[in-house]
Design a protein that fits this description.
two-stranded parallel ribbon; globular; 11 helices; alpha+beta
Length: 371
């Protein structure tokens, strides 16, 4: 991670108690990838998805989690099962953030960048639905282990953005499910559409048990065909959609990386007990690395936020002066603000987070577990 500054935001979140939810019922969900919504006229909006538990958010420290694992290896699954059996059905509200589908030069990051979140005071989350789990599965293998989630399984009106990781996941998830569950995984009841028969033109292969037909010739498994086979449905929107783009295709880092700002802002927006646990976890883990890695990580953390760099540095015996001679990585391009922070390493003062709302920065109950 010392060679991947874009990971700083993820590390600050993951190594804090947010990385150890107390159980599934008190866990938030975040889609990470940026999707796109398309209306009947071909107008598009970029979209981020969020699941918010109605019972609130609760997390544990590393010490709490260690105490739990000393006695139970599956507490979250057991808690979820038992709650549903008691009739305490867990619920999550689905919220979406939306923005116009263009580059947004007013932002200091690229909207489809998976290492960033969208400021909620600018792009407020809107509630669009609620998910309730009101029964446990009758057969764990059929209804749970054979579920084949995939980012490429979309309904009309949902589409892909220019999110690079989403493109890769769309291929890899489908390949994984075909290998793990089987080539006909989408025929299984747990994966098939509930409001209409599937029409995929997929035929045969291991464990096939249905031919998706809609009155066409069942002996024709290709399209287009003059023999009465399946035909592709009409799209509900025009072929052309979204903004007009001009330019050259390149292999390059995004011009607006800004790898440190959101990591520092998240640290400042945490509760005190979250910050304390984050610092302790970073010190413990970075302390296992070589001196070169330790110094580089403290350098990164000072660029994120003075207090974060100072506190982790104190735990490792490294000060801002000890890393001031380090230069940016060869793969890094610092913007003007980052270069200014580098010139004043350790003496920039706290970032301004007044009125700022970040994804997952909500009240977090500390689930204490006696050790």
């Amino acid at each position: 991670m010392s060679q991947a500054p874009e990971s700083m935001h993820m590390l600050v979140n993951l190594f804090s108690p947010r990385g150890i939810p107390a159980d599934y019922r008190h866990q938030q969900g975040f889609g990470v990838d940026t999707y796109k919504w398309v209306d009947a006229q071909g107008e598009t909006r970029l979209v981020n998805y969020h699941w918010l538990p109605t019972c609130g958010v609760a997390s544990m420290t590393e010490a709490d989690a260690a105490a739990v694992q000393a006695d139970d290896l599956g507490p979250a699954s057991k808690d979820l099962f038992d709650a549903i059996e008691r009739g305490e059905y867990p619920e999550w509200e689905l919220h979406v953030q939306m923005m116009d589908d263009h580059d947004h030069p007013e932002l200091d990051f690229d909207p489809p960048d998976d290492t960033k979140v969208w400021p909620e005071e600018v792009f407020p989350p809107r509630k669009v639905g609620t998910l309730q789990l009101n029964r446990n599965v009758a057969n764990n293998f059929a209804e749970n282990e054979q579920i084949s989630f995939g980012t490429g399984v979309l309904v009309d009106g949902l589409d892909f953005s220019d999110d690079k990781m989403l493109v890769g996941r769309t291929f890899s998830y489908s390949d994984t499910q075909r290998y793990r569950v089987g080539p006909n995984c989408l025929q299984l009841p747990v994966n098939a559409p509930r409001n209409g028969p599937p029409a995929t033109n997929q035929r045969d292969g291991q464990m096939t048990y249905v031919v998706d037909t809609g009155g066409e010739n069942p002996h024709v498994n290709y399209e287009p065909s003059a023999m009465g086979g399946l035909t592709e449905a009409d799209y509900p929107h025009p072929d052309e959609q979204g903004p007009k783009l001009t330019g050259r295709l390149t292999r390059a880092r995004p011009p607006r990386t800004n790898d440190y700002a959101q990591a520092g802002e998240r640290f400042l927006l945490m509760q005190d007990w979250e910050r304390d646990d984050l610092v302790g976890n970073l010190v413990a883990n970075i302390g296992e690395a070589t001196d070169e890695v330790r110094r580089r990580m403290v350098w990164h953390l000072f660029l994120c936020e003075d207090e974060l760099g100072r506190r982790v540095g104190e735990g490792l015996g490294i000060t801002a002066d000890d890393v001031r001679d380090l230069t940016p990585l060869e793969t890094q391009t610092l913007d003007d603000g980052e270069r200014k922070r580098l010139e004043n390493l350790g003496a920039n003062g706290p970032r301004d987070v007044e009125g700022h709302t970040m994804t997952h920065c909500v009240p977090n109950e500390h689930r204490r577990v006696p050790g």
